[in-house]
Amino acid sequence: MCEAYYKHEPTVLNIGLGGTEAPPIWRSMMLEQVSAGYSIIAENRDNCIIGAALNCIIGCNESKKLCKLSRCCDDGPIRDIIEFFAFVIDAPKIWQRFPVENVAFEQASLAVDCDYRRLGVAKRLLQESWHLSRDCGYRLFRLDCNNR
């Protein structure tokens, strides 16, 4: 996932970190999302991972958690990215705009191996995540899109 997602993530590329290894804080964020138990993994016929949708449940204080987490980082691009993600969570003001409980099902990240792109893998991961959200009773499905 770090290979397919972090190294090709548009925000990472735009800030000049393309091709670098994911730092420990980024890996711990991804591990926390996977540990939530809502993530969906796509495998090829040889049982190799070709894509993943890291899903988790977020609350109305998620941006505050990310800002606090960013303060654990040295000043620099990783801290800037985490603060940017906190801004992106708050920008649509979903908690004020939608009359739902203070939780949402979030597709935090979606990645597909370069060799398997344009085959519908990402679309299927998104659909399956949406169905999982609905089946678990969440009324709000959240995802942010960025691409090159």
From TrEMBL:
It comes from the Eukaryota. InterPro entries: Acyl_CoA_acyltransferase. This is N-acetyltransferase domain-containing protein.
